[in-house]
Amino acid sequence: MDVEAVRRARRENPGTRERDLARQIGVSEAELVAADVGEGAVRLVCDVPAVLNGLAEVGEVMALTRNESVVHEKIGTYGGVQLGKEAGVVIGDEIDLRIFPLRWKHAFAVEKSGEDGQTRRSLQFFDGAGDAVHKVHLRPASNLSSYRALVERLASSDQTAWLPEVTPVQPAPKNEAVSREELTESWSRLTDTHEFYPMLRRLKLSRIDAVAMAENAFTWPLDPGAVPGLIDAAVTEALPIMVFAGSRGCVQIHSGPVRNVKPMGPWLNIMDDTFHMHLRLDHIASLWAVRKPTDAGGVTSVEAYDADGSLIVQFFGIRQRGLDAPRWVEIVEALPRQQAKVA
User: Fold this and answer.
1) Cβ atoms < 10 Å from Cβ of 208
2) 180-334 has the same fold as 3-79+103-154
């Protein structure tokens, strides 16, 4: 599909969300946005350190990270940026991110008129498959002059409208060579939660394969419908929790209480002052309780996966002196477990 065809589809479907329209016409979201270069979009150089450090001057914004099944939004400011070649962090009072810079491939500044006539401004970043890895939306309190200066600094010299070449992500083959014994022995030697991903890479295991293989050693399957009960317990007891949701290039984290829960059809929505989450409960194909050992003690999480085995969202209790809050552990252990399937 060429640029003009994409623009025509946009004109003919003015009320359709970008992600839905891209899927409808058979292009990636990055291609959809790129077609608007010169007509509301500016192509940027995808310089991740410059973007994240420059955002500190923009002030209050809304950070958005999503995957196919959950949208995670945090209102706050960018700060505490520490980036390496392959990974980094943004750690502020509200906006808390884990960044994988090599997966950020395409960047745009986008201006659109909303239904109320107000101009909506955002920075949008996409991976090599054309899927969004992170977005930053300006708010009324944002520093517009700092935003414009940042866009000017990052603007590409090429502002012609062309569709980026994208490469669909291929699922990794399952590693049949690793035994349960090898996995659980490696798992038992973990001393920090940050050692988990290196362990998976070393063993060449996907996260869902490792979690399923470690059943009854470090994990146990929960009823896929148990998430609302988990959130209700956290709300009722004012128990601070951590909510992790990620794309392939960014993981976004909420830490603190949740208060305002609004179910709507298949969606579980959290609508707090600085944290919004929209979770498709019907996309949860499996739900697991996962326990990792550390030097300070065990860390317990609840992890939701879709039908393809992709991680949707994770829930943790907020640790006290490195340890799980006892009440969090009790709540997780009381969640209904997955019933064994009858052959």
Assistant:
1) 19
2) yes
Q: Is the pTM of this model over 0.70?
A: yes
Positive or negative torsion for Cα 279, 280, 282, 284: negative
User: What DSSP line would sit under 54-108, residue for residue?
Assistant: HHGGG-SEEEEEE-SSEEEEEEE----EEE-SS-EEEE-SS-EEEE-GGG--EEE
Give the pLDDT confidence score for residue 68 in this predicted structure: 95
Identify the bridge partners of residue 109 per DSSP, sorted by sequence position.
42, 123
The sign of the dihedral angle between the CA atoms of 252, 255, 260, 264 is: positive
Instruction: Give CA separation, 293 vs 218, 322, 327, 335, in Å.
Output: 9, 11, 18, 21
CATH architecture of 180-334: 3-Layer(aba) Sandwich (3.40)
Q: Are 265 and 251 in contact (CB under 8 A)?
A: no
Tens of pLDDT, residue by residue over 272-330, are: 999 999 999 999 999 999 999 999 889 999 999 999 999 999 999 998 877 889 999 99
Q: Which CATH superfamily is domain 3-79+103-154 in?
A: HemS/ChuS/ChuX like domains (3.40.1570.10)
Domain extent listing, the chain:
3-79+103-154, 180-334
